[in-house]
Amino acid sequence: MEQAQERDGTGTPDAPGPRAGGDGRSGTALELLVHGVGGTTPADMLDDPRTVRVTGDDIAAVFRRSEDADAESRPEDYRGRPVPEAYVWCNLTSGNGTRALWLLLLPFMVVNLAHWMRPTAEGRTRTVRLYGLLVRLTGLTLTVLLVAAACEVALDLVAWQCAGTHACAERHSWLGFLSPVMSDGGWWSAPGRRLALAAAVPAALTGLLWYLSLRTWRAYESQQPIDRADGPEEDPARNALSRPGFWYGRRLVARLRAAHTAAALLTVAAAVGAPAARFDRRAGGSVPLDTLGRILTAALAAGAVAVVAVVCRRGRSEGRLDRALDERLVRRLPLAALLLFVGALLYGGWARPGWTSAGRLPGDMTFGGLALAQGLLVIALAVVAHLLHRSLPDARAAIRGLGGPAVAMLACALGGVMSGGVSQRVSDWLDGTGTSLDGPPVLLTWQASVIPPLLVVVLLMCAVLARHTWRRVRTERAAVEDDHAGEPGDPGRTRRIAFARATAGLTDRAPLLVAITSAATLLLGAGALVGAMTTDRAPADAARGTHAAVHGAAQTAQALGSWLIGLGFILFVTWGRRAYKDASARRTIGILWDVGTFWPRAAHPFAPPCYAERAVPDLTWRMATWTRATGGRLVISGHSQGSVLAASAAWQLEPSARRRVALLTYGSPLERLYGRWFPAHFGPAALGSLHEEVDCWRNLYRRTDPIGGPMRLPGDSGPAVDRAPLQDPLTYGRTELHPLPAPILGHSDYQADPAFAEERRRLLARLRPEVPAPRHTGRPESVPAADDGPGSC
Fold first, then answer.
1. Which residue of 161, 272, 399, 614 has the smallest Cβ count within 10 Å?
2. pTM, entire model
3. Which CATH superfamily is domain 30-93+611-787 in?
4. pLDDT tens, 569-607?
């Protein structure tokens, strides 16, 4: 494909210049198509194999048909029809198989989602800031947890326990040079030096996370939205998505990256230095080394306080396009942590006669403290979310405004599964007999043991949902028969349609499943923490001497949980790799992944990058330059996730440009998913304001669609946006137009419905320059009285 146009020297996309019109404006109309999850090709979107790239690059670009490349120079040819364009953004979220490694960052992505699930609030600025602060602190604990798990594997299990045990080191000959017995007391066999060498693993993990965050930060957060700082128009839209700096979180991500990198390095430094400091504090220890150990401990504590202080600073600056960076903080904080890390390596690697490795490193306090901190943060977050929701109740909000705390709890659970899974698998691999090593900390064993009861709760919930769905199928069968009364009956056809409708409704039950799972996770996790701290033994050992049934249940839960947590981690990695190689697997998890990476990184800098920070400015630039250069109107047509991008881009326009835009959404999750889970940004008030600001908005959906749904706007505007549910399938039986059975389309192929062409034709007819724009007051155009008022499309 050719590239028809390039960006000019100022970084502004070259809009095709008008060639007609006495005022220099052609008034040509534009139809901008935005695809959804899974992506497609420009040829499929434009229904023409000959396409050219108008603007953009190999990652995201706008395409036209070849015959429309110079449409602006021939405005008379487009008086009765618009110029179709396709925005293709699928390469922002899919690509080569290496991007599957992003799934390893899933806990970070999920906790970042919790930040944006804040309930709608009005006049509670401090409470809103407290909500964001609690989520950022929860994200910080996840970073420390992941690095602590890497330290547990490399330092404790490998360097301390296995290398210090003759039987384990003999089975793994590659550890021979670290073993005091097999290496005859070689230089690396000293416990401190073994730990210092093993620290390279978590340090490398920290470096990898830092590098990935920095690289994606330069590629995504550096994409600047339109700068409306110089004399912006008064914007009546209150939604935060209309703020100039919403899609430009460069400063916050850089600051959080510095803090989390420093926290990870301090965690590794503490894992190396703490055992040596503990040995030096014993009676008869070296006074100089003891003094150095105390100084190092104090410095690490001061570094931890500095990291928490940086995270606690005010978060995003959305009211303006903030191009400044905290250069000193971004550079000096990780550098200071790196120097402390090197100091801990030198201190821990100093020769200490008589120091031997026995038992396990004291990691129970670390993991126990992290679990306690996460539980308290989630509880505090739930209290704050409840206060916000109570101030401005939203009946449609997921879990009554507690969606953010519930998802934050799931993020902590995912972090625990990943840390516990890798620790348990490595322990089992090193200790083939299960008798030579003490294994991972007791708390991780307790956490693995509560997984089977948690799965029982989830399976019971699934059984309840299955029963509800079966009942719903019977209800829908009667509804399908009523919809097609008078036509020859087909029980099999009726059952399939009813089943599609019933299963599509399961999406609306997701909040209940998340709420129960999160509550069970919190309670079982608290029980595991109490059991580990009070008994200091594994569940099976703690239950020894009790009733035989209790002991057997504890043994079963411990063994089954150990295998499940390891198996879950392996399947997680395997499915992640397959998701970016297999198109069907990509479509299966695509909606969840694209929802997760839609939002900017506001709570965790190591989360996968936000593709919307590229896509939304792209669409905004295109629409703004088009309306400014041609004086024409445009309709932006979005399917599925594309409708979310379209709405977000419309919010970013100046109010005057927004009034020249019409929206056509189909299969849209704007209200059904985003409105319920992210009420502060896509709730009824936000969607209602968008409807009032754009020229017109029409939404199409089906009862068989598990993702898209109606907008349910408040007041009288709702019916004007939502068309009645489209018929799916198009025909019940065989007809003259459809001699073969019509398929049940669900979420796909909305263009196949005649209603789509009808609604598209109505919207495009409004874009003609001679048609006055209705209902908006304060416009230069003449507004007929009959068309005045919201919802008149």
1. 614
2. 0.89
3. Alpha/Beta hydrolase fold, catalytic domain (3.40.50.1820)
4. 677 667 666 665 665 555 555 556 777 889 999 999 999
